[in-house]
Write a structure and sequence with these properties.
single chain; Dihydrolipoamide Transferase; seven-stranded mixed beta sheet; OB fold (Dihydrolipoamide Acetyltransferase, E2P); 13 helices; 587 residues; binds oxidized coenzyme A
Length: 587
Amino acid sequence: MAKQQVNVPDIGGAEGAEVIEILVAVGDTIEVEQSLIVLESDKASMEIPASHAGTVAEILVAVGDELAEGSAILVLESDSEGEGASEGESANASPEHSDSQGDTGEEPRSEASAQDESAGDDGETGNGEASAASAQDGAQREVVVSVPDIGTDDAVDLIEISVAVGDTVAEGDSLVVLESDKASMEVPSTDAGEVLEILVKEGASVRQGDDLVKLKVSGASQPAGANDSAKDGANDSAKDGAKDGAKDGEKDSTPAKSAASAPAPATKAQARASQAPAAKGDADKGKGGPVYAGPAVRKLARELGVELDRVSGSGPRQRILKEDVQAFVKTALSTGPAATGGAGIPPVPEVDFAAFGEVEVVGRSKMDKVTAANMQRNWLNVPHVTQFDEADITDLEAFRKELKGEAEKRGTKLTPMPFLLKACAVALRDNPKFNASLSVDGESLVYKKYIHIGMAVDTPAGLLVPVIRDVDQKSLWELAEEVLDMAGKARDRKLKPADMQGGCFTISSLGGIGGTGFTPIVNAPEVGILGVSRADVKPVWNGQEFVPRTLMPVGLSYDHRVINGGDAGRFCTQLVGLLGDIRKLLF
Ligand code: CAO
């Protein structure tokens, strides 16, 4: 097993870039070029791809760490000979640093030869080597800043010009913002100076090397020493790349000279990198589309805890500007959580309904308002999943009908509800997670050793949920009586607060009303609720023929922080099995 440390490649001069996402875990098998982490500087975001295949043995960074070129990212383990460096050796992650020399088996190129080649290839302007061309030497000279290596030959949109003629810019200031369908990146100024001319229009399609902005720069052209050092950087990269490539046997797709280019997303890694937040934006389609925002805006939004898909952009193509993020925060602070719905959720706009016809405004009861608040709290706090099934209650219904006379004699009524309570009690006993609650800090589960089940009751005043205690210890007749009693008290508003406390699980039956299925909201801190719909006779294939069976639809909603799909599947399967053959309730 060869171990190899993967380091941050040339990130185009960014001095410190923050780890904003780690995309792999220890034990993951990594392909060449697979993204490992996402780095973000104040100018660009970048995914750092793997230069080698292997298994992640160790991750050496954490989200929030500041990394620079050469910082260790992770250790890869690989068993294929020659694929990686030998144990303990390190490699820069960027494919730019793996040279084709490895393929040919040639000696690594010397620093000089790498530099010479780049000069020869690119001519005077050093296209790709430096994105600025000096027009004139002397105390004042003109420099044209062009599109740097953006990692693609395709044209990209220029969506924002961040400067105006006459502006004074510092080296590194953003001049324009480019955006492809997946990425956005700022092109920084290569020099300090004054903007003489804007050579492009907003909305133009541009490619690497296209001229963007002409600057008047004070002072002589870059001193030889400075150039040298830039070249040295490039050569070091070339040298490292050649060396790594020789070891790695991988192909270089970009000349190593990119190290000397402007600090814009100059390397392939960077260009891809800027895809990271944009791709994220694509996923965040709260407003029904991708989020258009530059890295600096994304950084500001992260710092302020603002979800960009909730912010309306006032820039071109609804691009979100810094001012938009600031305005969003101001509004959220001034309107407060009641109006916004909390958690930064934008309020539903107020509509003058009377403008469309006659209306009547009726105040809501306290109970309605409390129920609404509870529903919203539970809906927002609990990640819900609902599992559906159908219970074949043909035999249960036959048995229930047989007992109708006896129920009357007892002065009670035997609906499906007591059977549901009994079946749920058995399923809760056998699947104790459903009878548990999550501690407030999320660190533990509280398993309840009692089985108290809430029963949603539809009353004229609103929804009430009395709790039937120790369901597992009560007979069907006792349960039938209690269902009637509690439902009656609820409708007569005679329930005491204690009657509605201590539930472990809830049943909401709309079977007497109708419907084929619904997704009930978990009554937190409970973790499960069973929604029961109206049973109906349906044809069921018994292996030879269709036979009429009475099927009762059930929907089990659960808190996915506590319950997994497998748990819910087992609970539901047992439940419908118990209702399908009530003899099993005896065990
Ligand atoms: N399929 C077919 N028929 C059903 C049935 C089902 N799943 N469940 C009940 N029935 C039948 C009953 O057998 C009864 O018929 P009979 O009088 O002929 O026997 C009839 O429907 C009415 O039953 P019921 O609703 O009065 O009694 P119940 O014990 O089934 O339910 C209670 C009691 C309190 C749960 C119910 O009255 C109720 O209030 N349900 C509404 C719950 C609710 O609002 N949930 C939503 C909460 S979230 O908004």
